[in-house]
Model the fold of this input.
Amino acid sequence: MQADTLAQPAMSPASETLATVETPCLVLDADRMDRNIARLKAHLAPMGVALRPHLKTGKSVEVAARLMTGPQGPATVSTLREAEQFAAAGVRDMIYAVGIAPDKLPRVLSLRARGVDLAVILDTLEQARAVAAAARAASTAIPALIEIDCDGHRSGVLPGDTGQLLAIGRALADGAELRGVLTHAGGSYAARTPDELRRCAEVERESVVDAAATLRAAGLACPVVSVGSTPTAHFATDLTGVTEVRAGVFVFFDLVMHGIGVCAIDDIALSVLGTVIGFQREKGWILIDAGWMAMSRDRGTARQPVDQGYGIVCDMDGTPYPDLILADANQEHGIITVRPGSGGTLPPLAIGDRVRVLPNHACSTGAQHPAYHVVHGSDPMIAATWPRFGGW
Done:
């Protein structure tokens, strides 16, 4: 594979359709995906920041090609396996956006030796010293970004912790490279209104801009100021001082994003195709061959005002049935019911009929499958099969 090009899509047999492909399987509506990508790029363009898409949602070279601004990046990854796979496809500019463990530095150095500008992130003095020591030993300056805690959601240095920021920055200067600061507004997933989302985006921006100012005032270079979550990326109105935005699940969207208010149901590009395999009519159940092994165990909407079970059930064209959800799941059995309290009715499905289920969390549902079966809108023809990968 050429270093400056990404792989071309693998094509499916011309006769394969949603009516004939083996189920359960993962279906990707490329038209919705392209619309989602165009929407975020159009929103960010007037603010003059780069988009560094997170490739963890797709874990696919073909999807990555549509997300990035060029075949070499920039990109964000969440595993070194992703970094290695995308490097093999020609991507050369990546941030490994999970706190670095010292025993993973040899893999980072191996990728950098192949010409990949792979940066790591960290939020402790111990990590910074380990990165600097590995860089000195290899005679190459490993770039690192300091992770900033903008909302108490997960990890990072508090933006006002001047002592910790400067200690990390100075430790990196002893052989490594301080590339900048980075944060993720994970707290935005709890927001429910546009005003709350805009406030999350502004707090995210202020946190990294303030941290960068602290470092620069001490004479430490801080060229990159990186923010990112799908909710804040769509609701930010001012990105002054920010150099790049990272987001991932926007490429497909899902029911959690819909519950937050970031997307509509008909923006969700990913679904699981299943076949009706039975009924429990006295219980109001329809059984399909897509259980939690196909959908994942993710029940993210259970914490939202509207609980979508394991997913919203659609017909084979991708149109939702009124108030029909995958209410429960065993390993290989999905249980479809009418949403409790809705007054809806079960559709007249028969054994062998097929449905598509929109997922709670596109990343975790995608991780259950080896490939995307690509369609365009309501056309049942499978236009291509794109492989996806897993692992760490």
